[in-house]
Design a protein that fits this description.
The structure is a homotetramer. Chain A contains eight helices and seven strands, in the order αβββαββααββαααα. By secondary structure, chain A is of the alpha+beta class. In chain A, β1 and β2 form a beta hairpin. In chain A, α1 packs parallel to α5.
């Protein structure tokens, strides 16, 4: 396995742990990234809660959300893989995707209020936060995004944006890279928390102007603040004993051997 | 003691710890399961907070909530055993019951608002969440469900549903098995948290349609998501050092010997 | 030092730690108990946050809030000792007192809403929760209860009740013994949290009837539930490494020797 | 390096950790203090999250926010240094400054509600909490305070007060010394939390009178309560394993040698 893939799996496991540790994903939800060298593949954990994902849990999928190699016996993939695959298909600029049911986001999945950036850290929600309602095209479903056409519909609703709210379900977030994705996921969520609190005042919200949002978002996504936030989240994982161990080269070879049999 | 009983007690201790660790039960509340091989008995801890329950704390009761064997000297049972016994009597399909006073559920025990499923994970609240008011049949009481007729009345209010809200008291939850019970207890609670937040918007709630709720609930209760959530909760207990040790065969024999004297 | 006093100091240190660990007291606030054998004295820590109180921090005071023996050099007592002393004077049935600024209680110290029991565990707030306003008798002060006449005024406001809310300041709680005091302090606070949440519905509250409150409070204060809650709180302290070590006999003698010099 | 500087860096690292541990600062925000012996310099960490700041991360700056010695290769300073430098310039009585985006403060950065002292611990917000809006003088910006003229404008808005709310951004707090700064930062935040909760009652707030606020603030800032709170926060850091190690004399010399090369 190439070094870049070993490293990518470790980074992806870290990202899974961060969004869990920071309180946004519980037992359900998932985080993926595009393959570091093959843009026609993406990496995602087998069906496990992000809080417990190890680098060795991560498998490769085609953009049609088929495993590149058959999954080992007893291993199952997530049900909602098409959320990831269809967004990677539709958005070549997107290289990482998260899907979650964070509690503070859920009220906004049930009411008509649009999320707006209320402080500079919330500017990453982007110019618009579109809604997607599974009822519109598919009627009564179990709400999950299971079929390729459902994933494609969600990707269309996301459009050129970075966050789409799914009615009575949750949120899907896109990023140009994994750090940016984690940053967006967390600070969009914080902005939703602020909007929830501010709404209780019963006065009109005073969001950032489009110009402010653009400037603040560009600033926040520069390397220095990105590196600072990543160091912070990783240190918190380490202190809590939650930082995932990297795959060892020997272990990787052995595992690959086994899988090939 | 048969293996299935040893295992059941361990699973029940785990279930007790999970609902505590996930923030739904504090010092009070309890979790029970039907005996794994004798449907006319159920298992429940002696009177202890679920957070500290060990497999060795668990005793067998008849469906009339009488201990199958006299409790050892100094050991007392819960006061509200009839909640469990009367539901097992009335509902042969129910094999696990929890009772709690989770904070986010309590506002709904005081107002006329009915709980409705606001996201797919909340679909397990079922088609209807009935209320039970101890005043209706019993007038002024200490609110606890202590007498067989009070337990039977609560079981009637529950009817064919999976959650009953007890006015000025708390919630009682039923499941077909222990994992499902824990899953229902936790996600019904999360749904109540979402309903509390969403209500602050002062607009009409937009719940799942009955069709969506049915499909989502069936999906959530399938083996894969059930196993994934159970692994997640157990891992969290283990990381926190809260996972209960199983009964050791030798210890069981010794303990049984002592109790028989 | 008599065994009962050694034990009392340990229990009081535990009580201090519990109300901190359960989130009600932060850096400020205090917990006291009447001397186990001399009703004309009470025990309270030197000026330290309850979260860090050790048995060796606890000193004896007269009911006029004077130290029975001069405090060692460099040791200072709390500024608001008269809260405790004046209540012990006025209420021979009270043997333990806590004073706190718990966040969920503070909104009720600023608005006219009276706290009412909204679930059975909240029944211990008692028949009435009186208000005390330092402005009424003393005009502009620093809000603290520093002078004997301020303490006496607060004790009069408490009257025969078990909780008094102090305008723009906090709460003072009384109990017949230390376990009951901790139980009252925690569940009065939980009831305030429920009232805060329930109020957001904008409908009339439906409290317990006086008969229900009396029966529920009597039930909750019986030995079995009291012991169960105390075990729960102590176990939580132990798991967190926060359970205070008891005074060792040898250390006590040595310490006493030093203090007498 | 003089002892006072070694000690100051340790104290500043502690202060950084406290405001993080107590939940007010996350990945972003910063805490500084004036140089202990040279009032024309101030100390602040390199660009890192306060939760991970070590004494060795702290550098000296002029009041024009230029590093006194060139930063080592690869080390970057915070972007918003001018917040600190310009306040130290404008306010000789201020010897410590914090800047944060604490969640409970943010709603007040978006609505017209002025923060008022609602309990004695909130009295440190001072007589007035002014607003600063970057739009007024600078139009659309990224919201951050990056240019000297932006810092000077913010310092003017702060005026003789101790807290300034920055529209759609966060809060900046001033103190006469580091302990006072931490105390102000934390209890201003707690007061904002109380104001948020109290507002949900929809009735007029009943703040402290100016006389009460003055007396309470003076009392809270006396050495005894200041020492008690500082002990409490430090003990919490220690229990959590977050207390920063002091710089060792030998390490300091070695480091200084390296930096001079």
């Amino acid at each position: 396995m190439a070094d870049s893939l070993v490293q990518a799996k470790h980074q992806l496991a870290i990202a899974n742990r961060i969004v869990s540790y920071e309180g946004i994903i519980d037992a359900f939800g998932h985080v993926s990234m595009r393959h570091p060298t093959d843009p026609n593949r993406y990496l995602i954990s087998r069906s496990r809660s992000p809080e417990v994902v190890e680098p060795s849990d991560i498998y490769e999928y085609t953009l049609d959300s088929q495993p590149v190699r058959p999954l080992p016996a007893g291993i199952q993939g997530y049900g909602e893989l098409v959320i990831h695959g269809e967004i990677y298909k539709a958005r070549p600029d997107v290289n990482a995707v998260s899907h979650h049911h964070g509690m503070a986001m859920l009220p906004f999945c049930n009411v008509a209020d649009e999320l707006v950036p209320l402080y500079h850290m919330g500017a990453q929600i982007g110019e618009k936060v579109p809604f997607w309602d599974s009822r519109d095209e598919f009627g009564d479903t179990c709400l999950l995004v299971l079929k390729p056409e459902e994933g494609a519909s969600l990707a269309r609703a996301l459009g050129p944006n970075w966050l789409v709210l799914m009615r009575r379900h949750g949120a899907t977030v896109a990023g140009r890279n994994l750090t940016e994705l984690v940053f967006r996921t967390i600070y969009q969520y914080r902005n939703a928390e602020v909007q929830l609190m501010t709404r209780s005042f019963g006065v009109a919200l005073q969001p950032l102007t489009p110009g402010e949002a653009k400037l603040a978002s560009e600033r926040n996504l520069m390397p220095k603040p990105q590196a600072r936030a990543w160091e912070y989240w990783c240190t918190r994982l380490k202190k809590a004993g939650e930082f995932p161990a990297p795959l060892k080269a020997s272990k990787i070879r052995a595992t690959k051997g086994k899988r090939r049999r």
